[in-house]
Design a protein that fits this description.
The complex is a heterodimer of chains A (512) and B (286). By secondary structure, chain A is an alpha+beta fold. Chain A folds into 2 domains: 205 residues, D-Maltodextrin-Binding Protein, domain 2, CATH 3.40.190.10; 257 residues, Periplasmic binding protein-like II (D-Maltodextrin-Binding Protein, domain 2). Helix content of chain A is 47%, strand content 12%. In chain A, the strands form 5 sheets. Chain A has a 5-stranded mixed sheet with strand order 2-1-3-15-6, sandwiched between helices. Chain A has a 4-stranded mixed sheet with strand order 8-11-7-12, with helices on both faces. In chain A, strand 4 and strand 5 form a beta hairpin. The longest helix of chain A has 29 residues. Chain B has a single domain, classed as MetI-like (MetI-like fold, Orthogonal Bundle). Chain B contains 13 helices and no strands. Classes of the chains: A alpha+beta (512), B mainly alpha (286). Chains A and B meet through helix 4, helix 20 and helix 21 of A and helix 12 of B.
Amino acid sequence: MKIIKTCLTAVISSVLMFSPMAYADKWGDQFPHIKATGDIAGDCSYEEMSKKNYKGKTLKINTHAVPVIGQPTALHAEQFAKLTGAKVDVTHTPAGDLYAKAMVPFKAGQAPYDIVFGFSNFINDWKRYLAPVPKKYMNSTEMKDVTKSHIGVSSWDGTMYQYPVDGDRHYLKYRKDVIDNPEMQKKYKADTGKELRVPRTWKEYGEMAKYFNGWDWDGDGEKEYGSAEVMKKDDLMFAAFFSRSVAYAKNPRTPGGFFFDLDTMKPNINNPGFVEALGDWVEATKYVPPGGINFGLGDEIGSFGGGQTLFSFSWDDAFIAAMQDDSPIKNKVGAAPLPGADRVWNRTSNSWENQYNQAPYIVWGWAVGVAKKSKVKDMAFDYLCFFSNGANHQADLAIGNFGVNPFKNSDFDPNIYINTMGWDADIANSYTKTLLDMEKSKNRVFPLRVPGVFEFTSAVATGTSKALAGQLSPQEALDEVAKEWEAIVQRVGKKAVQDAYAVGVKMEDNKL
Amino acid sequence: MNFKQKYVFLFPGLFVLIGILIFPIIFVVRLSLSGWNSYNGLNFIGLENYIRLFTDDPRFWESFFRLSFLSVTTVILQYVIGFALAHMVWKDIKFQRFFRVLFLIPMMTTPVIMTVIWRTFFHESLGPVNDILSNFGMSPKWLTDPVLAKVTVIIVEVWQWTPFMFLLLLAGLLSLPKEPFLAAAIDGASPVRKFLYVTFPLMAPISIGAIIIRLIEASKIMDTVYVLTSGGPGTSTETSSFYIFIKGLREFQMGYAASMSFTYLIIMIISLTVIAKVLTKLMLKD
């Protein structure tokens, strides 16, 4: 009996062990993109998609330009077409035009695209024109793995309009081979009297960046610089500014709004917290690489990822680019939370609180929705579910310029990065811990998601860029932004903005 | 052919004219009287957008004066360089055909792609221009200094569009009558006097046409600014068309952008008419 039991156990174990492998190999061979993992079982896996038949149907997608998000969109479109027989037309659009490219036909009552890619902060303006994600997909294995905060970012008052395909937050990236180097620490101490460590505050960040600016500290024969940041006007620079502002202006003891005072809808954007952050940023123009104040996201990724700077902060892409096999600084970089500040502004008492403050900025991720007027909604949702299935998602995460970043609970397992991407264990651990801690933080800032959001962020970009260019002082620049914000609130309607903003405030105040 | 049939033949042309010219202008006017944006429809708000534009938007006027400076400067430079080049290949020189084609090449390239290449040239840390200049201890901030960024825009615009001026002026030179030049030669006029008193006056009507055409085109400058500087640093290279683009297609304030477009159209019609009159008076005084 015992022998039979042992044999049976062995047979069952073999079946369980080897059948997924055979299953994985089958799809991994056909689709080299997922070779590392093979197919991963789920409702939208390769196996499941191959059972669908969309022959004769066309799916039209508007996505970002290649490579960031545009490349994975096109790649998964090709795979989806191969599996289902569908015809998939992909249009690539520059980031700044994604909003209008969808919005113009939406307003005209048309749906030239079944799927529209954009940013998650478009949700308020777009939700009227998007189909809510059906229950079937909400209950899928893939969706169940999505973190709570990214379900929140993709939803509006409990209804999900944007299908999660990416998870973004800003965090600090630094050169581990410099910051953790005992010789450099000794030299820095001798020259400045201060400790060289992962910066806890933006002031420390600035001091270190300035010290390591303009000389060859890694011995590669080229000059290196302090920091690479997104400073180019209208190229997501407002997000970089908010990342620098949260430490000074997001006070956990003053709930009720980071961007506005929710009760009065008076902008907080020109309070001393934000002004201090802009002052730091203007100072940063002295320690960015030449031309750094014209750096867009692509330049920032290339600069830090190519080993040109000591620090960088923004989305994951620069970090992933630095950790790719072809990077000159693979396994020489570290991840840490955004620096904090030694004081934080209290907008209720109108005074500084002299205590350490740090706040994660969840930013927004790439977001994507299905047009309400699309005639192929099922196919569109299947495509999106397939886009972010386990195998595709893990493979996409490993490619820096794909722009796909962790948003699933399973993404925070450091073993993924150690085993499939060849990261050093301590780097993988610090990376996943940094991301996970942001998920757990109770002092987070979420993106502004109100009607006419682009008017607000565009005003911030214009004002802050004037300060960076030296056209205005930080206070003057932010006073101008505040005045513009007040005018926008009046134009859009105070109640409409207030109601929409209340949803975001609930998330920030940990009430949702 | 009876009277009605004539109208049938006129109809296709009329239809195209209405479709591509009259309707868009009427629609822009209607749009400018609405608050059409991401949260409002085509609601009628009267002159609100125009009042905002004239009383509460200094950025529009700043961008307009910046545009005036950029377009006048670029067109003057294009005219001078274009005339010089046309004059050079008008004469019998070696490789005349080669030069004529060579000078036209910039105009045949795609502006956006060429601007991307120029942006790479002028990249302050990776570009070849600063790489060369660094050997002489210089590293100009081509794209991040408010003054130099304007110079960079001017360089790119002049490079791209001087061939257009060259082409028109060369065509003009080739069509000039030979007699005045023969008379000047018999009188023993020097080359400079020949240019000042014969070539230049004879070229005046063509020059005015070329300058006006280029001014119209230069006043729409958008792609160079968009790719090269995004209007920055700050707002130092922001032009009217780029500002209208930001308001209309970035911020989706379609109604307000329409009011700016229409105002801009009126200003351009008036100012170009005045410029044409002044140029005619100056250049055709005899």
